[in-house]
Amino acid sequence: SGYQSVRQDHSALTGKTGTAQTPLRPAGRAAFGDKLIDVVSEGAFVQPGEQVEVVLVRGNRVVVQPHGGGS
Prior knowledge:
single chain, 71 residues, mainly beta, 5 strands, globular
């Protein structure tokens, strides 16, 4: 049936917390539940295993920041 684009709507991830699976310097991958998502870190580098929170989704660009900052 032909090629289908893998473009997904990630807007539901806004505000969700996940775990970095690769170093985010600033781009990498993070797990949210059983999904592995390409993300970009805002500001600081993030090490694998650290918790991240989605702060912005624009198209297929998912921006995260380290979770727990400012509390």
